[in-house]
Amino acid sequence: MSDDPMLVGIVGGSGSGKTSVAVELVKRLKRRKLAPLLLDMDAYYAPLEQVKARFGARPVNWDHPHAFDLELMAAHLSALHRGQPIRKPRYDFTLSDRTGWEDPLPPGPVVILEGLLLFALPELRDQLDVKIFVDTDADIRILRRIRRDTQERGRSLESVMDQYEQSVRPMHLEFVEPSKRWADLIVPTGVENRTALDMIVHHICGRVLGREEPARV
Question: Which of 5, 130, 170, 198 has the most crowded CB, counting CB atoms within 10 A?
Fold first, then answer.
């Protein structure tokens, strides 16, 4: 087994299903006794006062890199690559603010990271060993975002639609979609693409365990 933790980045537009892909990969790798660590970029939104200061009089754009604590996330990725534990920020979406820190998390042999901007920002992208882009049609993505934000985050339908038009879609076109070119593998339809998931697990096991797992294609 390789001594250095393997960092696997998963990117896709908001509502693409990248979180579902990440969770499914964690389940599959656990069955192979790899005990991966799962990290989400959403936990690395900067504290609210910092975000407000960065945007000044302009409305906060939560899909722009300025909304994130990129220095902290880059430092955490570097620490994980060295096999060191990190304390992940605790973020409350109902408050739009950081509320504390998780207990120390060891990296384990595999770290799965998912987020909008992992490939668009070189300070994050360059630390990833494998880069996966989840490619899902825009109409499916907006429907999933509406369902998530209204049911899980207490948002109104109107506010979700306004945010999508004013920031989510423009930032997707500026940052997320162009970052597809950095992907090692593009996964259409997300977690429903069982063949792609089989191939990813096969590759990770081959790299980490030093042997090839049968690919159930």
Answer: 5
Question: Which residues touch 146 (CB under 8 Å, ≥6 apart)?
Answer: 157, 160, 161
Q: Spell out the domain ranges in the chain.
A: 6-209
Burial zone of 12 (CB within 10 Å; 0-12 exposed, 13-18 middle, 19+ buried): buried
Q: How far apart are CA 116 and CA 90, in angstroms?
A: 18
- Min mean pLDDT across 4-8, 37-41, 98-102, 145-149 is at 145-149
CA distance 54 to 40: 22
> What tens digit of pLDDT does each residue of 107-159 get?
889 999 999 999 999 999 999 999 999 998 888 888 888 888 888 878 888 88
Q: Which helix (H) or strand (E) holds 28?
A: helix 18-31
Please give the class, per CATH, of domain 6-209: alpha beta
What are the φ and ψ backbone dihedral angles of 129, each rounded to 5 degrees? -85, -35
CA distance 40 to 102: 13
- Contacts for 28 with CB less than 8 Å, ≥ 6 apart: 197, 201
Residue in the structure block whose two tokens are 């998780």: 102
pLDDT at 213 over 60: no
pLDDT digits (tens, 9 = 90+) for 181-195: 999 999 998 888 999
Give the Cα separation of 124 and 9 in Å (integer). 9
